[in-house]
Amino acid sequence: MVELPEKETLIIPVGPSGSGKTNFFKGYIDDEKHKGKYEIVSFDEVREKVEKQCKKEKREVTELDVMTAFCEAVEKALSGEKSVIADAQNLRYDQRKKLKDVAEHCRRGVCAVVFDLKKEELEERNRQRENPMSQEELDEAFIRFSNEGAKVRNEFTHVYTVDKDGNLRDEERER
């Protein structure tokens, strides 16, 4: 069975909204053999904190505010020995680059976990969500990810994939 690095590595999930990134990692780290070996830093939770702070300061939240705070939270988490999962939706190349720079600054490894789903599989998962996306949002997310997927494989030296059944594969070993 393929396992993700358990120490001193930044793990960046890559996949469209609704592909199951958050659920996969929650299940993965809740497994008895992985307990205590990983820390998740949630972009959504960081954004909520930044929004509250900006509201107190009576100013608009910017993407830069949120990404800066997210990178700071990831850097803090990387100061320990656990591997860190940077849980965020649809990170663009420039955002992934910032996270990779943080890992390099902390002298940590970095890998990507790509959620490889066909459009039909993504649509089925979307129907099962508590708050499903509209078809337009789903189509946009799928197109954006389709354009990013190939780039990610060239951007990272180590890439894992998760298929529709939640199976983890190590693409490095399969090359």
Structural commentary:
- By secondary structure, this protein is α/β, with parallel strands linked by helices.
- It has one domain: P-loop containing nucleotide triphosphate hydrolases (Rossmann fold), CATH 3.40.50.
- It has 7 helices and 6 strands.
- The protein has helices at 21-30, 43-56, 63-78, 93-105, 119-128, 135-155, 171-174; strands spanning 9-14, 38-42, 83-87, 109-115, 159-162, 168-170.
- Strands 2-3-1-4-5-6 form a 6-stranded mixed beta sheet, with helices on both faces.
- Helix 2 crosses helix 3 and helix 5 packs across helix 6 (135-155).
- The longest helix is centred in the last third of the chain and has 21 residues, at 135-155.
- The mean pLDDT is 88.
Write out key terms for the chains shown.
single chain; 175 residues; alpha/beta; Rossmann fold; six-stranded mixed beta sheet; 6 strands; 50% helix; globular
Fold blueprint:
Layout: E1 9-14, H1 21-30, E2 38-42, H2 43-56, H3 63-78, E3 83-87, H4 93-105, E4 109-115, H5 119-128, H6 135-155, E5 159-162, E6 168-170, H7 171-174
Parallel strand pairs: 1-3, 1-4, 2-3, 4-5
Antiparallel strand pairs: 5-6
Helix pairs in contact: 2-3, 3-4, 5-6
Tally of structural domains:
1
The CATH superfamily is identified as P-loop containing nucleotide triphosphate hydrolases
Low-confidence stretches: none
Oligomer: single chain
Shape: globular
Secondary-structure-based class equals alpha/beta
Rounded mean pLDDT is: 88
